[in-house]
Amino acid sequence: MAPPTGILLFYLIIASSFSPLIISTAHLNLTLPHQHPYPDTVVLEVHRRVNESIARRQILVDNQCESRGNPIDDCWQCDPNWAKNRQRLADCSIGFGEGAMGGKGGQIYIVTDSSDKDTVNPIPGTLRHAVVQEEPLWIVFASDMLIKLKHELIINNYKTIDGRGANVHITGNGCITLQYVSNVIIHNVHIYNCVPSGNTNIRSSPTHVGYRGKSDGDGISIFGSRNIWIDHCALSHCTDGLIDAIMGSTAITISNNYFTHHDDVMLLGHDDKYLPDTGMQVTIAFNHFGEGLVQRMPRIRRGYVHVVNNDFTHWQMYAIGGSANPTINSQGNRYTAPDDPNLKEVTKREDTNTGQWDAWNWRTDGDIMVNGAFFVPSGQGIANKANNVDPKSAVLINQLTGNAGVLGGPRDNSMSMSKGGTTGASGSGHDQSNSGDVDLVGMIFSGTGASAASSPSPTTTSILLSFLIILSLYITITNQDGQLSVPLLLLL
């Protein structure tokens, strides 16, 4: 019988050799629970909805609805009494985030107080108090408001923030965070001047408060969340991304928004090695990418992204980039290149040699290229059209994106910036005590932003693995009377 120390040493050598494999296999499930199994069918449905709205506009004979052919807007704006049936909006999304219910079926919560004084015990009537409640809520605003956040606004499941009928501005520290939640709609609000904050306690629900580390300063941060729809917002001047979706987020639609004055506009995917983001699916439709933008419209890691009927009028590096073999399906967009002859390419493969990205599926179908812009396709994008569908709506890009941004006033944030408060950094992109009776048991938020990993560290995993090895060794030695049997390690 081998000495116990010899067996232990043998096991530790084997464990050290295979521990990277053991660690990595924990992430080999590439299918997210709510990932659509046939993403191209979602693309086809988007085209059907667009073409249906365009056809309806062409045959319209009355003046009750000034249809623009935008299926989202036509869905609710054609009802002259929409304000009496606000929750109809929840039926109007398209694409991968079509299932986002928001607060549909819940009560109307009217925000009457624009203050944000206490992140642990928010005052009833404030936006922070509304978004942390457990039940579905449709949140509206009693009047025009400028909400200067003290720290991140952490939103609970089944909430709609509906700014229609008021001029709502959200700015300040942290801005909006969606973390491990589902069914959230954010509609018709200005979001800008978002700066990092944190290292404090923040309430996430009526029963949970957690310590929150320093945030990145995103306008909207989507972390491990699903069924999210962001529509008709104006976003600009944040420290990091205007919208970032990472850590296995999926079923997202980003539509009818107006993006200006920012460097790293939109990041989709945590990092190249985070395999669950392969299941990320995002629709980007009818947005205006405008003045002062530099790059990442979006920048994609893994996943499937449908970029359809957007108007790209400015970039200073590139419009759409990616790494780690994402699928990019670009259809019916208008890309207007800058005058600089070195910046005509729409696309950029990040940190990847040509031979490595030849098979990546980057498709362009029916896109309009202006001022020398060009899209470099690859993979299936070279040989085939995406779905044998002609996105004829590309020639109508002016009307499809004509209402992008906040409705009922300036579509972007230029007026609010000229009037308003402090202008945050335009985004370099590189990459209190509790009061009252607070239940600190439960969800604890911590982290340092998009680059923070959620999985256990290799050190923690190695300690756990070593414990299991020792346990299996003990069982082998004590129960087999010196006869070496199949160790427990091989059954893990």
Shape: globular
Helices, by number, come to 9
Q: Supply Rg.
A: 25 Å
Mean pLDDT: 81
Going by helix content, strand content and strand pairing, the class is alpha/beta
Number of strands: 31
Could you give a quick summary of the protein structure above?
The chain is built from 9 helices and 31 strands.
Blueprint of the fold:
Elements: H1 4-25, H2 39-59, H3 71-77, E1 107-111, H4 127-131, E2 137-141, E3 145-149, E4 153-154, E5 159-162, E6 168-173, E7 176-179, E8 182-187, E9 190-195, E10 200-205, E11 208-212, E12 220-223, E13 226-231, E14 234-236, E15 243-246, E16 250-255, E17 258-260, E18 262-264, E19 266-268, E20 281-285, E21 288-289, E22 293-295, E23 299-301, E24 304-308, E25 311-312, E26 320-323, E27 327-331, E28 334-336, E29 347-349, H5 354-357, E30 362-365, E31 368-370, H6 380-383, H7 397-400, H8 414-419, H9 458-479
Parallel strand pairs: 1-2, 2-5, 3-6, 4-7, 5-8, 6-9, 7-12, 8-13, 9-14, 12-15, 13-16, 14-17, 15-19, 16-20, 17-21, 18-22, 19-23, 20-24, 21-25, 23-26, 24-27, 25-28, 26-29, 27-30, 28-31
Antiparallel strand pairs: 10-11
Helix pairs in contact: 1-9
Protein name: Pectate lyase
Pfam families: Pectate_lyase_4
Family: Belongs to the polysaccharide lyase 1 family.
